[in-house]
């Protein structure tokens, strides 16, 4: 169920000048035996301090690849960033050497993985896994690192941090492990946190707790969060802005209010109709029929054409341009062209 | 942890007992007396001999005596050579065989792990391809074939190293090489595949995301987990190395325990056969026990399982 | 990157107005194009054929089997006839692989050796398979206490050094081909039993799924499509890898003088006989048995590896 929470939609304009991350026209491809997969095909977005940007899409739409590209974790080969820039606080990350990139990774930009059961090394104590990053990045004594680790364990809500730090991951429950993963990500006080499906592997009740934890942390530290998810419920709860990805492209982006109440792209509309909502009672759930296109050979036009209920000839042939509906809301869809006036549904 | 060790220890004792019992009854299942074949032994001498070795007692008494002797590690005198006891043979041969075995397993472990890790890190590269072809060859060439090849090349053709006996470090090179190649190949293959598996794990991605250096990721995060399967097969490898010492000692004329064992079989020297078998098995089972404990020290999850099993 | 550059190049003016009309929806098009479904075995075979090393192993083994069957038949020389004046002849057109110190033809003896090696290997693999299936099947099927007792027994047997047990049995039963095969299978079935038990436990789960969903008629399909590939894969691989172990054990024992006895020609016996020739330079006497032991084991190992890759359902996409 989606319950849209508007309380945390902050004044975005206020933070405009504090841009943390700028992604411009990012292209990522993977060479496989079957051919070249164009996993990300020209993605652009900004992330500002203190906000949560949710990147939403079906599996395989390129959202996780985008996050790996930001972290510089695309395995090369087979993967490659073929075009575009990732600018973090004025630094072009795609041009940095591996060594320079390592200095940023885990220190200024951190990442949280999907499955807490596998994200922690089973043979190292929690303390070791908490402190090794900060010891690598900052000249800090073991005692100080440990103090910081205890502080972080407290922040993420793990009781008895001093004793529990000496334990191994298998001695914690799934929810607790995800808290540890979050604590590890926060150790170096990053300015950007990338959370890749951070709640997908968890029970629903634990999911809610972890999401609350994200909000709390953001309030306390002002960290910018990129939330990668396919779960609109999660998005409704903590996102400030939303980018909807489809077949390696962002097809619509806007504030949470704009996306949930004024979705303009048929795919976004389809997504919203396919999940139960409290505020739209009485409407039947409609799954989007069909599957995303093969990214080995992406279509020339809009990738959603084959599944789109309003598809026109132009959609098949030409890629739609990005149309701005407001300073925050943009949509890539031919329905917004004046010549498609008659096609638009009320 | 203590409980786990006690449990494993108990299993070890049972295994040794099974082996000892099996050996005893197998040996006594052989028709006739071991002295029958001896020419020139008349009935009286034979009866005397049987009394000397306790063979005239009922089987269960013999079995009891046998177990008692095993418990005190006294395997009695040899039949073919009554002036020396089995214990003499063991104390003379075992240190040499032990040395050969230990050097071999260390060489095999170190080189196998290095080869496996390098192959995994260069997955699908030339190094990987060459290393793995060499490894399959190493598994496929029997140690006695390899040993003769090595002697032919290194000792006869090139005259680089001595080919027989166990008298100096130079003498140890060729036998160790012949014996270590097979286990090394097995370790290399296993290390490679388990390393490849570990490298795809999320915690490796997480270590990368922390900005750790590649060396740290490999040695601290990947290797320890990748070596777990290697530890589990150590027992089997040790058994293979142990039986391998039989042929290696034969080929290189090394006066180790394997040589005495093979001789005792060819001579039908039953006390020696029984004594060496039980001794070998005990050593092996004890090694397996140590390997188990080493494994539980390496993998923190096992400790808890043993504790939680209460 | 060949990226459609429509975004920048074609402004909306260049796009004809008539394109802004709805297209006929072809629902079929929206559906996923299903990858042509190949049967499991077909698919596995295709993967195996692509593995060059495994295929060369297979071809070598076919060649070896043919030579083992027909080689001695076509050879004008016997494997055991002693011909002293003809001793230690180097390879020539009459004796392709030369002769040994008793003047016996190494070429003929090599193929006799192949018979013994292949026979020992296949017999051991088959017997292991039957004992393993019965033991593992009972343990897995009965479950509970039967299972735990049976597995405990396996655990104890697993601790036994198998070549030592084999040697003991050979001492007791006297060296012969039958003894070697029996001795090899005394401990050899353990690995197979473990695998079969694991597979049976899986089957039980499948049965549960089948029953609970009352698929009824589709049971046979499930067995064919899911169960057999999953269970047969590991078993076939295990059998393939048992063969070289058994071949090695036979050669090893014969080499020690504990296995096949003269005048029979086993590769291990031939290698043992030839050991003394290292200094005399009669290289062919050691080379041929050594080469064939090694290459047969190599062929089985690479074939086993190839099968493992080809049959592993996890690799299917």
From TrEMBL, chain A:
Boundaries of every ABC transporter domain copy: 23-272
A GO cellular component entry from the record: plasma membrane
InterPro entries for the chain: AAA+_ATPase, ABC_Ni/Peptide_Import, ABC_transporter-like_ATP-bd, ABC_transporter-like_CS, Oligopep_ABC_C, P-loop_NTPase
Topology versus the membrane: Peripheral membrane protein
Keywords of this entry: ATP-binding, Cell membrane, Membrane, Nucleotide-binding, Transport
Gene3D superfamilies with a match to the protein in the record: P-loop containing nucleotide triphosphate hydrolases (3.40.50.300)
CDD domains referenced in this protein's UniProt entry, alphabetically: ABC_NikE_OppD_transporters
Keyword check for Nucleotide-binding: yes
Major place of residence: membrane
Transmembrane helix among keywords: no
Any one of the GO BP annotations: peptide transport
Localisation per UniProt entry: Cell membrane
Molecular function in Gene Ontology: ATP binding; ATP hydrolysis activity
Family that this chain belongs to: Belongs to the ABC transporter superfamily.
The name this protein goes by in its record: Dipeptide ABC transporter ATP-binding protein
UniProtKB/TrEMBL annotation, chain B:
Compartments (UniProt record): Cell membrane
Transmembrane segments: 9-30, 100-122, 129-152, 172-191, 226-248, 278-298
GO molecular function: RNA-DNA hybrid ribonuclease activity
Family matches, as InterPro entries: BPD_transp_1_N, MetI-like, MetI-like_sf
Statement: the UniProt record of this protein carries the keyword Cell membrane: yes
EC number in record: 3.1.26.4
EC supergroup of this enzyme: hydrolase
One GO BP: transmembrane transport
GO cellular component: plasma membrane
Family designation: Belongs to the binding-protein-dependent transport system permease family.
Protein name listed in UniProt: Peptide ABC transporter permease
Keywords, in A-Z order: Cell membrane, Hydrolase, Membrane, Transmembrane, Transmembrane helix, Transport
Listed SUPFAM superfamilies: MetI-like (SSF161098)
Positions of the ABC transmembrane type-1 domain: 94-295
Membrane topology annotation: Multi-pass membrane protein
Chloroplast is among the record's keywords: no
N-terminal signal peptide: none
From TrEMBL, chain C:
Keywords: Cell membrane, Membrane, Transmembrane, Transmembrane helix, Transport
Domain called ABC transmembrane type-1: residue spans: 114-304
Annotated region described as Disordered, given as residue ranges: 1-21
Polar residues composition bias: residue spans: 1-15
GO cellular component, one term: plasma membrane
Regions that span the bilayer: 53-74, 116-141, 153-171, 177-196, 235-262, 282-304
Location(s), subcellular: Cell membrane
Keyword Isomerase on entry: no
Protein name: Diguanylate cyclase
Species this chain originates from: Jeotgalibacillus soli
Classification lineage: Bacteria, Bacillati, Bacillota, Bacilli, Bacillales
């Amino acid at each position: 169920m989606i319950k849209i929470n508007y309380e945390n939609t902050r004044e975005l304009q206020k933070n405009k000048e504090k841009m943390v991350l700028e992604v411009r026209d990012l292209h990522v491809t993977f060479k496989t035996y079957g051919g070249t997969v164009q996993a990300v095909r020209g993605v652009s977005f900004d992330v500002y301090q203190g906000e949560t940007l949710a990147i939403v899409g079906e599996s395989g739409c390129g959202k996780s690849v985008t996050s790996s590209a930001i972290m510089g974790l695309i395995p090369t080969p087979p993967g490659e960033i073929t075009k575009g820039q990732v600018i973090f606080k004025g630094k072009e990350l795609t041009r940095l050497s591996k060594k320079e990139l390592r200095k940023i990774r885990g220190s200024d930009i951190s990442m949280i993985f999907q499955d807490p059961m596998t994200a922690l090394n089973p043979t190292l104590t929690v303390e070791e896994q908490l402190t090794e990053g900060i010891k690598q990045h900052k000249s800090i004594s073991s005692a100080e690192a440990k103090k910081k680790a205890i502080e972080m364990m407290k922040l993420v809500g793990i009781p008895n941090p001093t004793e529990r730090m000496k334990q191994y991951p298998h001695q914690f429950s799934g929810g607790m492990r995800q808290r540890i993963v979050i604590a590890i990500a926060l150790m170096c006080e990053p300015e950007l946190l990338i959370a890749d499906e951070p709640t997908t592997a968890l029970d629903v009740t634990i999911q809610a707790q972890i999401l609350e934890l994200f909000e709390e942390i953001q309030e306390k530290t002002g960290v910018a969060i990129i939330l990668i998810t396919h779960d609109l419920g999660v998005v409704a709860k903590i996102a400030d802005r939303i980018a909807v990805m489809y077949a390696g492209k962002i097809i619509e982006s806007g504030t949470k209010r704009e996306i949930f109440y004024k979705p303009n792209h048929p795919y976004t509309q389809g997504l919203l109709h396919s999940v139960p909502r409290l505020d739209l009672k009485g409407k039947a759930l409609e799954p989007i029929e069909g599957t995303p296109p093969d990214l080995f050979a992406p279509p020339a036009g809009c990738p959603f054409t084959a599944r789109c209920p309003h598809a026109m000839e132009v959609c098949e042939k030409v890629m739609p341009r990005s149309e701005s509906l407001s300073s925050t809301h943009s949509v890539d869809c031919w329905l917004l062209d004046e010549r498609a006036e008659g096609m638009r549904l009320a | 942890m203590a409980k786990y060790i006690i449990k494993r220890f108990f299993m070890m004792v049972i295994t040794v007992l099974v082996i000892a019992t099996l050996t005893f009854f197998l040996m006594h299942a052989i028709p006739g007396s071991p002295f029958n074949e001896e020419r020139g032994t008349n009935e009286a001498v034979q009866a005397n001999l049987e009394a000397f070795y306790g063979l005239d007692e009922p089987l269960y008494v013999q079995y009891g005596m046998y177990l008692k002797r095993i418990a005190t590690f006294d395997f009695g005198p040899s039949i073919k050579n009554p002036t020396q006891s089995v214990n003499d043979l063991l104390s003379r041969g075992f240190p040499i065989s032990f040395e050969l075995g230990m050097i071999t397993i260390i060489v095999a472990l170190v080189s196998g792990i290095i080869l496996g890790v390098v192959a995994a890190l260069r997955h699908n590269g030339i190094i990987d391809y060459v290393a793995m072809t060499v490894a399959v060859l190493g598994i496929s060439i029997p140690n006695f074939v390899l040993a003769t090849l090595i002697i032919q090349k290194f000792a006869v053709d090139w005259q680089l190293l001595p080919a027989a006996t166990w008298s100096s470090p130079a003498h140890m090179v060729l036998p160790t090489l012949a014996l270590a190649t097979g286990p090394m190949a097995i370790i290399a293959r296993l290390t490679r595949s388990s390393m490849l598996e570990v490298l795809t794990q999320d915690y490796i991605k997480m270590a990368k995301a922390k900005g750790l250096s590649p060396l740290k990721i490999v040695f601290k995060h990947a290797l320890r987990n990748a070596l777990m399967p290697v530890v589990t097969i150590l027992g089997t490898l040790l058994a293979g190395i142990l039986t391998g010492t039989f042929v290696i000692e034969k080929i290189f004329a090394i006066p180790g325990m394997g040589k005495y064992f093979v001789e005792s079989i060819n001579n039908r020297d039953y006390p020696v056969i029984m004594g060496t078998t039980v001794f070998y098995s005990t050593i092996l089972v004890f090694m397996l026990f140590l390997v188990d404990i080493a494994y539980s020290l390496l993998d923190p999850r096992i400790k808890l399982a043993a504790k939680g099993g209460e | 990157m060949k990226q459609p550059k429509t975004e920048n190049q074609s402004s909306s003016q260049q796009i004809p107005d008539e394109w802004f009309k709805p297209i006929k929806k072809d629902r079929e098009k929206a559906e996923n194009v299903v990858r042509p479904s190949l049967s499991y075995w077909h698919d596995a075979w295709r993967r195996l054929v692509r593995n060059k090393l495994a295929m060369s192993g297979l071809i070598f083994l076919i060649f070896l089997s043919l030579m083992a069957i027909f080689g001695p038949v076509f050879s004008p020389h016997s494997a055991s006839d002693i011909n002293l004046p003809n001793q230690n002849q180097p390879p020539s057109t009459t004796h392709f692989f030369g002769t040994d110190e008793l003047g016996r033809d190494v070429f003929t003896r090599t193929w006799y050796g192949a018979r013994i090696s292949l026979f020992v290997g296949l017999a051991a693999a088959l017997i292991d398979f039957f004992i393993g299936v019965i033991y593992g099947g009972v343990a897995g099927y009965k479950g509970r206490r039967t299972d735990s007792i049976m597995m405990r027994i396996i655990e104890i047997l697993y601790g036994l050094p198998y070549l030592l047990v084999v040697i003991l049995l050979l001492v007791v039963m006297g060296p012969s081909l039958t003894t070697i095969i029996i001795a090899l299978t005394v401990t050899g079935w353990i690995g197979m039993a473990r695998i079969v038990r694991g597979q049976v436990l899986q089957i039980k789960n499948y049965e549960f799924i089948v029953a609970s969903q009352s698929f009824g008629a589709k049971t046979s399909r499930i067995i064919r499509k899911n169960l057999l590939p999953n269970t047969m894969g590991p078993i076939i691989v295990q059998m393939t890898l048992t063969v070289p172990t058994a071949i090695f054990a036979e050669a090893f024992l014969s080499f020690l003088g504990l296995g096949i006895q003269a005048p029979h020609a086993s590769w291990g016996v031939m290698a043992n006989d030839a050991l003394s020739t290292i200094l005399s330079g009669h290289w062919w006497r050691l080379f041929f048995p050594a080469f064939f032991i090694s290459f047969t084991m190599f062929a089985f190992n690479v074939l086993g590896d190839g099968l493992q890759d080809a049959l592993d359902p996890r690799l299917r996409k």
